[in-house]
Design brief:
- The complex is a heterodimer of chains A (about 400) and B (about 240).
- In chain A, helix 2 packs across helix 13 and helix 6 packs antiparallel against helix 7.
- Chain A is α/β, with parallel strands linked by helices.
- The radius of gyration of chain A is 22 Å and the shape is globular.
- The N terminus of chain A is likely disordered.
- In chain A, about 45% of the residues are buried.
- Chain A has 17 helices and eleven strands.
- Chain A folds into two domains: about 280 residues, no CATH class; about 90 residues, no CATH class.
- Chain A has a five-stranded parallel sheet, sandwiched between helices.
- By secondary structure, chain B is an alpha/beta fold.
- In chain B, the strands form two sheets. Chain B has a five-stranded parallel sheet with strand order 5-4-1-6-7, sandwiched between helices.
- In chain B, helix 2 packs across helix 3.
- The model of chain B has no long low-confidence stretch (mean pLDDT about 90).
- Classes of the chains: A alpha/beta (about 400), B alpha/beta (about 240).
């Protein structure tokens, strides 16, 4: 969530006399233009904007294309919610993702996060003390998760995922028709949610249009052909592709687009309709307060067709790829929440270290590596980044030095 | 004539002579693709009498071409058609893309392309000679233009019909870059690969991928000076666009 401090700092960064807020609003305007062009070319008639980031994108899109917004709706989901539901039909697949997400945790801690407090309590009531001790002393592994959630797993857990499966199916059918051309719209990035929704609803025409797409350097799977990055679709910066630089700072995009509220972790039925466990997010929370960067960007958005004289926002590109210390500092206190029910805040930039090995470790684990390079190595780091993006790619014999 | 073609010209016992089209049979001047898009944007603005700035038309074309590769079709290796790129471009510009508009846009682009191309006469003469001797002459191109548009470009350069068949990635939604277009050609012609030789200016698409599919291939790049001028033109355009 972007704070007031960052808003002020963003205002300090000028581009041709305009604040970075202006730059971001123009950037989202371009995104909306491209998104709309893509949706029209694919004859999409149902646009599901996925919580949480998608909800904010919908408001931006609605301002740019008021008429096109009519076929849109907010759709509450998350990786965790889709994995819970999909575990009922494909535990051998979902447990791979679960094992990755909860790596290093005990089964007991993992279940606390996965089930939520209420169901975890109910689950423990079905277990004996020695069984609970075993869960506490066993680390998460896919095979252990399959023992718990597989087709012959724990009855309580199977009932839990069956319930979530049925609720998500009902929620889906309340939202779309079988012959709809469906677009899932979100900030990004690799499309795990798309994969699980396609797994659960194979007879529906589902395409995803994300702000950006990346497979994080991993392999491309079949479902990736249905996941489209509107601004970029790459694992690294490509010199000739204007917006591919945004991949280096996707967390900032996500931070701007993430309203300050809980993520959907499961579904509940109130006797009439299915709802996300977090409840429907109030409009004022989605839009944010007056100090929220997103709110300021939204205010500047207007219906604008064909305005693409943009030069790829040269200063934003510079600040993203080879930032100055000032650019880096405005993100110094920012953090993002970890998913999957884990109540952890992950810092976008880590504290600088004096030890060279720790510096490298920090850069590798930072959410914004280029910012961390400048934080660790100052001007020298910035020079390296400049050469990496502005010089090496254009000199063939130096290309081997690029990241 | 570049010495790169020697191997192709001296090849023996081949029944099928395959060539890449752009920068092999038809030689472009050194101006980069983005430069050509910019020139085309000026023409589009004037011909369609648009009030939109040239820069916007240019960026719409660039972004439409990029986006089309990501979202076109339902396969992993997406080869968009020119009509789809134009549809996206007009959508971005807020103009409803009618069939008439798309056809006019294509004719403008072809007219412009024609001014940028010149025939590779030594290669064309060689292919003509081989055709007279009974060889099959085919063209294989990774291009967003379909084969009929490519035929239009080839023969507008004053050349008589030399190709028995033309394969464009835009028609088949397969590409040389992925290698799948070679498979289509081989299956379509029912060929013995030993009797087949291909040449082109892309090391990966025309040489490596052809070899991977068991086809003899000769790498015939443009001259070093041309490559340097082309890269410089590309770099200058990236500078102008704010991304270099």
């Amino acid at each position: 969530m972007a704070t007031e401090k960052q808003t002020k700092s963003l205002h300090d960064v000028k581009e041709n006399g305009n604040s970075m807020i202006d730059t971001y609003s123009k950037m989202f305007n371009v995104y909306c233009l491209l998104l709309n062009a893509a949706l029209e070319s694919k004859n999409i008639n149902k646009k599901l904007f996925l919580s949480r980031g998608g909800l904010r994108l919908r408001r931006l899109y609605g301002k740019c294309h008021p008429n096109a917004d009519k076929q849109s709706l907010d759709f509450y989901t998350s990786r965790l919610a889709t994995i819970k539901a999909s575990t009922y039909i494909a535990p051998e697949i979902t447990t791979i993702d679960m094992a990755k997400e909860y790596y290093g945790m005990s089964l007991d801690s993992m279940l606390k996060c996965f089930l939520g407090a209420e169901y975890y309590q109910k689950f423990t009531e079905t277990k004996k003390l020695n069984e609970l001790d075993e869960l506490e002393s066993t680390l998460v592994q896919q095979s252990k998760l399959l023992d718990l959630f597989g087709f012959n797993g724990e009855p309580f857990l199977r009932d839990f995922v069956k319930g979530q499966y049925e609720l998500l199916c009902q929620y889906w059918r309340e939202s779309v028709e079988i012959d709809d051309e469906i677009a899932l719209i979100d900030t990004g990035w690799s499309g795990t949610i798309v994969f699980y929704l396609k797994l659960m609803f194979p007879n529906y025409n589902i395409n995803a249009f994300f702000f950006g797409k990346t497979t994080y350097g991993g392999p491309s799977y079949d479902y990736h052909m249905f996941v489209h990055g509107v601004m970029f679709d790459t694992n690294k910066v490509i010199p000739g592709h204007g917006f591919s630089y945004l991949i280096e700072n996707r967390h900032l995009i996500e931070m701007i687009c993430e309203p300050q509220c809980a993520s959907t972790e499961s579904y509940i039925f109130d006797g009439l309709k299915v709802h996300p466990n977090c409840g429907v997010i109030p409009e004022e929370v989605i839009i944010g307060s007056q100090d929220d960067i997103y709110n300021k960007i939204l205010l500047k958005m207007k219906p604008e067709q064909g305005s693409l004289a943009l030069n790829y926002f040269r200063d934003l590109r510079r600040a993203t790829l080879y930032p100055s210390k000032k650019d880096v500092e405005f993100l110094s206190g920012s953090s993002r929440s970890a998913d999957f029910g884990k109540e952890i805040q992950v810092q976008i930039l880590l504290k600088s270290s004096s030890n060279p090995i720790s510096k490298i470790k920090n850069i590798r684990s930072s959410l914004w590596r280029n910012g961390q390079v400048v934080r660790e190595f100052g001007r020298l780091g910035r020079l390296y980044l400049y050469l990496n993006y502005q010089v090496f790619p254009y000199v063939p014999w130096l290309r081997r030095f690029t990241k | 004539m570049s010495s790169y073609y020697k191997e192709y010209f001296n090849s023996k016992g081949k029944d099928v002579y395959s060539v890449d089209i752009f920068d092999t049979v038809l030689l472009r001047n050194y101006k980069s693709e983005y430069f050509r898009f910019y020139e085309l944007a000026k023409i589009v603005k004037s011909e369609f009498e648009l009030s939109i700035p040239v820069q916007s038309i240019f960026y719409a074309r660039v972004e439409a071409a990029r986006l089309a590769y990501y979202i076109y079709g339902d396969k992993q290796s997406k080869e968009p058609s020119i009509d789809y790129i134009y549809t996206l471009m007009f959508n971005v510009l807020g103009i409803t893309p009618s069939g008439e508009l798309l056809a006019k846009m294509l004719s403008l682009e072809l007219l412009y392309e024609k001014t940028q191309l010149s025939p590779n006469l030594p290669l064309i003469n060689f292919l003509k000679k081989k055709k007279e001797q009974g060889a099959l002459i085919i063209g294989i191109s990774d291009m967003y233009l379909n084969s009929s548009s490519i035929v239009d470009l080839v023969y507008s350069n004053g050349e008589e019909l030399i190709f028995d068949k033309l394969y464009s990635s835009a028609d088949f939604k397969e590409s040389k870059r992925e290698g799948s277009l070679y498979e289509i050609v081989i299956n379509d012609l029912g060929l013995n690969k030993d009797k087949f030789i291909h040449c082109g200016d892309s090391y990966h698409s025309d040489f490596v991928m052809a070899n991977n599919y068991g086809i003899s291939a000769v790498y015939t790049p443009r001259t070093k000076i041309w490559q340097l001028r082309n890269k410089l033109s590309h770099y200058m355009m990236l500078k102008k666009m704010g991304i270099a």
